[in-house]
Design brief:
With 205 residues, this protein is of the alpha/beta class. It contains six helices and 14 strands. The longest helix has 12 residues, at 161-172.
Length: 205
């Protein structure tokens, strides 16, 4: 397994390439503003995208999805159905731009070579926010649910603070430690966030 991080767009969104090194199949997680930069990095890695996976509907996490899907039409594009029209004032109508858009729900799994991604529905930042777990590897792609020392905003249109607390508690209760790759800012670990993140500590009360 290899994880490549790219910071793209005016909001500094983290786009990740999750690559199964045995098969060179990749999942592009949160394809932010620059489809061409993502294409170049995929080619540099010798990887072919099997999935374009959206953690939620805000346009800073989805803007390159239509262009990437045009470049790689075999790559399946997934989002939670509650965010298929975008979300709040940062909306982007992914369903209208990608007619073959697919939907995942809590507990769904996606195979990627020898890896398996599991969908965890974590509403709060948006109604359709998800986190993606790579079980067996201890990796959590958190979107805008959990950041290092912070969380995604809950004062935007479409956000629900009470649901965010419930989602954070669900993450806190995951067994063991996890490497956390958030939608913005630097990576962290779940153990560190349990110990120091005030929002996660609040959710655990």
């Amino acid at each position: 397994m290899k994880i490549v991080s790219m910071v793209l767009g005016e909001l500094g969104t983290n786009c990740y390439l999750l690559i199964d090194e045995a098969t060179k199949r990749a999942a592009v997680i949160d394809p932010a503003d620059d489809a061409e930069a993502i294409r170049r990095r995929l080619e540099a890695e010798g990887a072919a995208p099997q999935y374009l996976l959206l953690t939620h509907g805000h346009r800073d996490h989805t803007l390159a999805a239509p262009a990437l899907h045009a470049l790689y039409p075999a790559a399946e594009v997934y989002i939670h159905p509650l965010d298929k029209h975008g979300a709040g004032s940062f909306s982007y109508p992914v369903d209208a731009l990608i007619p073959t858009l697919k939907y995942y729900a809590d507990g769904d799994t996606l195979p990627l070579g020898g890896l398996t991604l599991e969908v965890l529905h974590t509403p709060g930042h948006t109604e359709g926010s998800v986190c993606l777990l790579v079980r067996g590897e201890g990796v959590l792609f958190a979107g805008d649910t959990l950041f290092a020392g912070s969380i995604g905003r809950v004062d935007l249109d479409g956000a629900v603070p009470e649901k965010m607390l419930s989602s954070l508690r669900r993450l806190a209760l995951l067994e063991g430690d996890w490497a956390v790759y958030p939608g913005h800012m630097e990576p962290t670990t779940l153990a560190r966030e349990r110990a120091y993140n005030p929002y996660l500590k609040m959710a655990m009360r």
